[in-house]
Amino acid sequence: MLVPVLAYRRRYLLAARSRTRLAPSLGLSFVLSLAACGGDTSSTDGEPADSDTAPSGTPRAPDGMPASTSTPMNDGTGNGAPDVPAITDSPETPATPAGPVGTPERPPDTALTPLPAPPLTPAPDARDEPRPLTEPRSTASGFPVVENRPRSIEDTFSEFGEAEFAAGIGEPVLDAPPDHDPRRNRPPYIPDLDNVTVFAGSTLELHIAPLDPDGGVAGQWIEGSPPGSIYLDNLDTTRTFVWRPLEPDVGIRALTVHTADSEDPEVRVTYTVLIRVLMPADPSTIENRPPGIDLVEPQTVRVGDPVVIGIKGTDLNGTLTELEVLNPPPGATLVTHPEDPRIRVLRFVPDAPGTLDLDVVGRDARDPELFAEKTIRVTVRSPGHFAREGARLRELADARDFLIGFAAAPDFDTRPDGALYAAIAGEEFNIVSTENSMKWDTLNPLPGVYRWASADNLVAWAHSRDLIVHGHTLVWYTQLPAWVKRTEPAMREGHMREHIDRVLTRYADDVPLWDVVNESLEADGGYRDSIWLEGMGPDYIEIAFRQARASAPEATLIYNDYDIGWAGPKADGLLRLLERLQANGTPLDGVGFQLHVSDDFDRFDELAENFRRIALLDLDVYVTELDVTTSVEAENAQAEVYEGILSVCLEEPRCKALQSWGFTDRYSWRAEDTPLMFDRDYTPKPAYRALQRRLGEN
Ligand code: XIL
Predict the structure, then answer these.
(1) Which of 50, 69, 650, 687 is buried most deeply by CB count within 10 Å?
(2) Non-local CB neighbours of 478 within 8 Å, separated by 6+ positions
(3) Nearest CA to ligand 1 atom 3
């Protein structure tokens, strides 16, 4: 008898779908046994998201502090946590804060258990300390630029090893709507799939032929296909995955194969096939492929600014392409990137307006007859070209004690136009968010390995231009390093708190405002599934804020989310969350509204109402990630949205800041939809002028 239901994920919201791990030989008999065993794919042990049954099951101590958290902290004794321990590293008397986002004086939080001792992962040390930049490959000026030290750390977190491969193909996973009745509509399956071995240089062909036991044609698609592979349609309801791996592909990787039911495509079954690539006995049999040069986009830069262009050679055989710039500008340097030997960095300072077409050749390391050619176009403009009329946004904002800002593209000082980017950003804004450079996967990619340089440089730049830094983000469900995702749920509280403490210990003096928890709610107002929810239940939010306050007593701490700027279940869920946090005495100072919207946004009244609801809780409001997708024809409509949202913010006394998520369309996470106030060549758009006008009004 097969055991069909192997795992349910714990749920705290009304699940839209259920996931069931299926036994290996999925088929009709299995599906029937699922029904016979009472394997109910619609059941969840979660709590509903409505306000009467607020999704927090933790009993509370009389003082309103949590009586216990779901996971006892590792205090080194193995006995869990003492009742109400003091925070050893929090100051006796928090200093009175200064600055526009400062917070009032508060007593230390006594509700937290101590941080894990010994630590769960090695603390940052001297090997993690960035060093001064050693080679000319930055455009930065006015502050000391640092780079991470090269550290050879073996990534021991590769997901699959020989043992997993030998264990055979994993169990298929059924993903179906809660009302799916497997007796009436049997899920599809894929016969004859197994893990496969292929030699580098040889061709793998994987025939994928799903079947639906009820008849009809089952759909299929794949994920995780390696570069260079193809997925052929055989035009007979089957497909073939074809791949010829090369030397760098040696190892074990997963290919995810999905099939969907012919009657109800929401009923899906997923297989994970492991592909093992081995070196052949005679490596010279492997075809030597020609090298490539990573596309370097056309650039717009300014006379007199340093320009750095990272040119990357790509060779599918894994050898280093020899790169040469045939016509370098006078005085140019070309150095190898210290962390990636495939990249050569060209640096020069253009001294006159015009167009430079830089011709690059990349030759194969084994066979110089194999080569690639590329031309990089650099348009050099005089400084006057980038002058903006009227007052700078930050002057206008400063005059009304308001924060106007942007999120900084990571490592902008190593992008070709970094000097121009920094110049405009420094002139226009008085606050900057760390778009990606303080996310967990950037800062701490492996246990005990810290990569601080990006964040350090951003902080140093911001201070050199007198901008406030807005830290983003300490606790989020995504952009986590693989090792964190693989931690034991019981240890998650410790890892989360250790992370918060380490990041804040480093940056608390320089970064006064933090997105402590990001995006913890679903569209229905319930809690988003995440490793944090899995590890601690909904209390993780409160614990995160308490730890943040303990580690950075003077910082302003906010909760940040999207789709909360208008009426609906998510905004209602947010209100319930905030009320509960406040009832528990959670240290929370404000709410960040992301506002990733489009040019047809018109729910300004609802936005004002939601700001008001937050203000009535005695919390500040921040517009944290504004961008407005548009097309060239609709830039005026985009401007109206920017201006309308700014107006709503300026009219709400508790709204402290408006930050767009980037400022030039060149570096936007939604670049194709040109959502920002400068175009990709740094020309201000109507949205810029609209902000300027509105900031200048009363
Ligand atoms: C985005 C970045 O802009 C991208 O560069 C990255 O690839 C993914 O994350 N909500 C957030 C931000 O809180 O961190 C996200 O930033 C955008 C949505």
Answers:
(1) 687
(2) none
(3) 669
Smallest CA-to-CA distance from 645 within 622, 668, 615 is with: 622
The pLDDT of residue 108 is: 57
Q: Where are the beta strands (DSSP E) in 413-554?
A: 431-434, 468-475, 513-518
| pLDDT at 489 > cutoff 50 | yes
The tokens for 475 are: 């606790």
pLDDT of residue 338: 84
498 as an active site residue: the answer is: no
Buried b (16+ CB within 10 A) or exposed e, 306-324: bbbbbbbbbbbbebebebe
- Which token pair is 325? 């710039």
List, for residues 13-30, the tens digit of each pLDDT value.
323 334 454 443 333 333
Angstrom distance (rounded) from CA 182 to CA 649? 51
Lookup result for tokens 């839209």: 16
Our answer to whether residue 640 is catalytic in this structure is no
405 alpha carbon – ligand 1 mean position (Å): 16
531 has a pLDDT exceeding 90? yes
Q: What is the largest CA-CA distance in the chain?
A: 79
What integer is the mean pLDDT of 343-371? 97
The CA–CA distances, whole Å, from 636 to 381, 460, 632, 640, 682 equal 26, 36, 9, 6, 17
Beta strand 196-199 with 204-208 is unpaired
Tell me which of 519, 625, 626, 665 to substitute to probe ligand 1's pocket, judged by most ligand atoms within 8 Å of the beta carbon: 625
Q: What is the pLDDT of residue 117?
A: 96
Q: Which residue has the tokens 């370097």?
A: 296
The two structure tokens encoding residue 640: 């109206």
* Active-site residue, from 428, 435, 493, 625: 625
**For residue range 412-428, what is the model confidence (pLDDT) as tens digits?**
999 999 999 999 999 99
Reported as a pLDDT band with limits 50, 70 and 90, residue 698 is confident
Question: CA-CA distance, 656 to 479, in Å (whole number)?
Answer: 27
